[in-house]
Amino acid sequence: MIHLRHKLAKDDFTLDIDVEIPDAGITGVFGESGSGKTTLLRCIAGLEQEEGLPVHKRNVGYVFQEPGLFPHLTVRGNIEYGARRATTHRIDGAPLVDMLGLGDLLDRKPDSLSGGEAQRVAIAAALLRSPDLVLMDEPLASLDRKRKDELLPYFDRLHDELSVPVIYVSHDIEEIGRLCDHLVLLDGGKVAASGDLFEVMSRVDTPVLSGRNAGVVLWATPVDHEDGLTRFDFGDGDIWAPGEYGTGPNSMRLRISAHDVSITRERSAQTTILNVLRAVVEEIHTVDSAVALVRLGVGNQNLLAQVTNRSISRLGLKPGERVFAQVKSVTVRH
Amino acid sequence: MNIFGPLWLSVQLALLTTFVLILVGTPVAWWLSQTQTRWKPAIQAVVAMPIVLPPTVLGFYLLILLGPDGAVGSWWVQLTGSALTFSFAGLVIASCVYSLPFAVQPMQAAFESLPRQYLERAWTLGASRLDAFFSIVVPLSVRGFVSGMVLSFAHTLGEFGVVLMVGGNIPGETRVISIAIYDHVESLNYSAAHQMSLILIVFAFVVLAAMFAANRRWLER
Fold this sequence. Notes:
- The complex is a heterodimer.
- Chain A is about 25% helix and about 35% strand.
- Chain A is of the alpha+beta class.
- Chain A has 2 domains: about 1-200, P-loop containing nucleotide triphosphate hydrolases (Rossmann fold, 3-Layer(aba) Sandwich); about 215-334, CATH 2.40.50.100.
- In chain A, a hairpin with a 4-residue loop joins β10 (about 230-235) and β11 (about 240).
- The model of chain A has no long low-confidence stretch (mean pLDDT about 90).
- Chain B has one domain: MetI-like (MetI-like fold, Orthogonal Bundle).
- Chain B has 11 helices and no strands.
- Chain B has helices spanning about 5-35, 40-50, 55-65, 70-80, 90-110, 115-125, 130-140, 140-155, 160-165, 175-185, 190-220.
- The model of chain B has no long low-confidence stretch (mean pLDDT about 90).
- Chains A and B meet through β4, α2 and α4 of A and α6 and α7 of B.
């Protein structure tokens, strides 16, 4: 485990963090603007305070929101900058350059790169420094949708192939749900929740993850195709999603937003909704005067449904009851 | 009559002054570009004073400071046995004070225009502060260094009032070209004054044109 303990007061903001995260995999840090995400990363790197170990001795890799490549060096020079100063060499340069698709860019200058290419170079530079911990501060936030979609598969590969722990800061819960294994929620400079990604995302009582951000990630295995859809098996039922995904033993992540899930008492035949799953009401949490979040047990996984308080009282929903969850939309990750 | 003696002395003085100013001015410019102290405006004003002060005022106080009874001058006498005033070494010190802002200001401007993220990235990539300065800041501030060097050199070359106050007119020691020209005009030797002045005009033009051409090439790259 990595123990993060940071306190910082500046102007009208106080950061007070004391949390343990796993020493492998990607830990997402999620929170709204001003919740202290970037400040936390800067504290870990030693960029925020004068005292303590100097930055260059902390052995952390830092990927900033803007790539910030050194303009007087080639791509190769930028990548090697950290490697030449590293005390250990745990990551090999050539395979990493291949993995990030940088082979053809090595002799280019940074000003001729696209935003996504530049960010890949910045990631390679940070990793070749052979850090004990990699900090990523919204590395996709400065890119448009298209560039983001180009870059995400590289992150998936890093996730699968690298052993160095990563802290990934984002205000986009979709990104976090796709990439991370562990999740820390920040609110007003404090940790609001922390734990396994799937567990934290299926909690109903965390205000940070309400509204648009409420929803779960499921593990499911693609089993077959039909009518341009893929059928996913998630242990206790099937979910259909548009698109044809390669079937095989590998599980994929399905993201299901709470506002795409509704609850019925009986299975209706007359509906356009494909995915109707048997579920058990586990917990009901009132978010505000109008809406509530309901956690549903589906097999050994969970769904969240965002419904109105009026619907809950009309249906008389209580924990422990058997219902049907109608899932309107599923996003497939990986 | 030797035209090139005074010119050569001026060039030597300007080169040496430029060299010392890059060594001394770089840390000053870097500190000014990074500091958050509320005294920054006052310190900047002190550095910039030689721009607005009449050279005679500067020369007058330097004469007192560098003289055998002055704070710096008496220490120098103890150290070397000779006086700083009316010597080439004294001229170098005086020129450094006189041209300091011309070295510091372009360098400071170059340092301030560097995105701070370059530094922070260099540190997180394992570079110490000094390492990051030489591997990132220096190569990205070349224009600031070139401007600072050319301006210090040119400003020292054209120096007159301060030299007159501190150095006087000793051939081979303190008789720089501007003093020599003044001397020739005083003694109504206009042809010698013409020759020296023309050399200086051509020299100044060539140096400045070369700097602007180098700057343009640099921009185009």
